[in-house]
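Suppose you are handed a protein chain with no further information: no name, no annotation, nothing but its sequence. What can you learn? This example shows the usual starting point.
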Amino acid sequence: MSYLQHFKLSEQPFRLTPDPDFIYWSKQHARAKAYMESTIWLADGFVVITGEIGSGKTTLLQSFLSEIEDNVVYAVVSQTQLTPTQFLQAVLTEFGFKPFNLRKVELLDMLNMFLIEQYSNGKKVVLIVDEAQNLTRKVLEEIRMISGIETHKEKVLRIILAGQPELRDKLDAPSLKQLVQRVRLRFHLRALDPRETKEYIEHRLTIGGRDEELFANACFDIIYRFTGGVPRLINTLCDTALLCAFADEKTSIDEGDVLAAVEELNWREHKSDTGVHEKLQQVQKRAPDSAAVTQIAVRSNGEVLAEYTFPLGRVIVGRSPDNEIYVKSKFVSRHHAQLVSAENGCVIEDLNSTNGLFLGAKQVKKYHLRDGDVVSIGVHELVYRDLRLAEQETGDPADDQITDDEEADDQDSAVNEQ
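A reasonable first move is to predict its three-dimensional structure. Written in structure tokens, the prediction is:
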């Protein structure tokens, strides 16, 4: 009897090869995918996705690519230890050219003509660079330059950079300040928490054809202790545990099988080995209320349904439960809009939603909010409060308070009519 038949499986559930059919949509994986999807709608800026080794970046990219529509042309460059000229050749090769033995100026001209041609034909072009942490500063600067190719209306190349945490450090270097200013969205894909680890294992077993419980509940805590919630490590440990149980002719997995697998792999507890557990716990804690700068009240028919407060940063509004602001309504898109709170206030931006955003009777695409503004989203309303203004009212006026004239200028430049 084979391994799969023994455990009543139709497919190997814990293979290490990335497979979009097995992807588990944790809240953060769903959010990272939403950010990647936003590149299709919004052409002005990069999206940067980072994550630990084995956190599921490649599987996420494959899932994103499997759902791309026919009007999108894409290239994926994953060999990134290249010179600027080699990088341009790699990009053009992915787009179907044979750009060898050409000078750099000829490569740039070829790419420029290709992008303009695709735009003229109604196509959107996406460049995905995987393992981007290996890119040199010169290549990153080259990417910034080609991102500027545009028509009289918009940029014509959408770019996603994906890589390990070192990519974040590299982008924060002062020499890449111009590139970072063009980054629209940055997201770090963390490891799974204990609950998600259990759900991840059960999800993969279900996709693999198992319709009965296979792992005893006591196993999941041990698996988390030794993997830190990193998907690739979870796969390795669970697959080894299955092999240990199969060798002993057992039809289910208990904690003894998991510990036997740990011994086979010669692993130590993840926390004592790398310290990642402590870092994850620190990252996953929400900022204290004292750090909150933005308050959003969700109203319907004049009744406040929920209130949210947020620190500096970006949050997503939509009807999907993975959003920070969850609005359950058929009139609200899955990822409807984003709110970006910064030192100079908060901006709301439509994410190509079906029904749009409205300030009064005027539809807006991107808008710099004023304290007290009410934005309509379907049949619901979002009421914005700047919590920093409340703090100023209880103390001395801020020296850098914006004048009414300056705010009016801001509003005029920020509102984009339909």
